[in-house]
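Lab meeting, item 3. Inverse folding demo.
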């Protein structure tokens, strides 16, 4: 498998996303070069990784050989690390271990680890450098790229956060070999999203491969295509003042369902349901081709994702949309897809949104 390097040109905040089956030494060398001179490096690792993959500890050891004062901190597994309490623990640990403004963080894990590491780096001493090594499909194609970092609070998902770009993203698809099937499927939801909002050919590839083991070369191309979609949008609108909002397709209802489940649903599973809701809403508003709703539902189901939306739109879910980040006054900025690769954004009044969602199912 070839090494793929995707530049993220953001002026002084520019970096590269490297997708490669690299060994620990090569990954560590690229991260060290991207971080440059530092006074110490804290490596934040998802605590599940020692059970899931043999690749994590060799990477930590390789980083320690190339960077100064490397120490490892294991984070609570999965979404449980995305709390203000967990961030406070990390910042306390950084201070206790003497990390100063010249220090850097490296996050090794899934999307929650990427968010945690990025947000901690954004706020510790008002901002230090960081890099990420995403180990799940969702993290590789979405969470690790773009500089949106954050944590959850009781009112909703990702309501506290900051924009803070990494110095590098090193994605080794080899980590996916030991990824549980449910988490692999969850990552595919974000790939489907990329196809729907920007890359119709990516949808075609997914439909051709769904339901079967994806060859490594095809998976690498799928990851690259999804990353390129996100990078293109981020470069055009780094801080979500306009176009970047298209990346929220499926996330308004998805985040509400995810939070209402007590985070028992994985993020990608909730996004799958959220995309179906958005497509159904588009059909109801005369925007989306009804055939696309059927096509996307069939694809998501074949990829092993939940599509049983109707019984999940309970009152708690509808109420949680009221604290969505995309709310503007009494309306929600909602992303709709008329056909693959075409996106429109509409401000929909909350009462109208709830009514049309229920009527569309």
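The presenter then showed the designed sequence:
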């Amino acid at each position: 498998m070839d090494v793929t390097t995707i530049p993220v040109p953001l002026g002084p905040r520019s970096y590269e996303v490297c997708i490669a089956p690299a060994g620990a030494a090569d990954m560590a060398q690229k991260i060290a070069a991207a971080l440059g001179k530092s006074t110490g490096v804290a490596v934040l690792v998802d605590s599940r990784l020692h059970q899931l993959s043999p690749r994590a500890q060799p990477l930590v050891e390789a980083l320690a050989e190339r960077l100064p004062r490397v120490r490892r901190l294991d984070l609570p597994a999965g979404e449980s690390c995305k709390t203000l309490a967990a961030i406070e623990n990390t910042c306390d640990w950084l201070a206790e271990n003497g990390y100063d403004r010249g220090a850097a963080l490296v996050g090794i894990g899934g999307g929650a680890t990427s968010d945690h590491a990025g947000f901690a780096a954004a706020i510790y001493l008002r901002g230090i450098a960081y890099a990420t090594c995403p180990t799940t499909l969702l993290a590789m194609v979405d969470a690790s790229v773009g500089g949106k970092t954050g944590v959850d609070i009781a009112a909703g998902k990702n309501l506290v956060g900051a924009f803070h770009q990494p110095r590098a993203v090193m994605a080794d698809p080899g980590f996916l070999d030991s990824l549980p099937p449910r988490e692999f499927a969850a990552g595919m939801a974000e790939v489907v999203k990329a196809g729907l909002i920007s890359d119709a050919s990516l949808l075609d590839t997914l439909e051709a491969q769904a339901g079967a083991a994806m060859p490594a070369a095809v998976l690498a191309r799928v990851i690259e295509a999804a990353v390129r979609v996100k990078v293109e949008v981020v470069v055009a609108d780094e801080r979500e003042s306009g176009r970047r909002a298209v990346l929220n397709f499926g996330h308004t209802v998805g985040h509400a369902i995810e939070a209402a489940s007590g985070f028992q649903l994985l993020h990608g599973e909730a996004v799958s349901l959220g995309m179906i809701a958005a497509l159904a809403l588009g059909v109801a508003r005369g925007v989306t081709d009804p055939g696309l709703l059927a096509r996307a539902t069939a694809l998501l189901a074949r990829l092993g994702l939940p599509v049983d939306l109707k019984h999940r739109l309970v009152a708690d879910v509808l109420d949680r949309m009221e604290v969505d980040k995309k709310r503007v006054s009494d309306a929600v900025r909602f992303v709709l897809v008329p056909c693959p690769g075409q996106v429109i954004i509409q401000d929909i009044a909350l009462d109208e949104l709830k009514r049309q969602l229920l009527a569309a199912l």
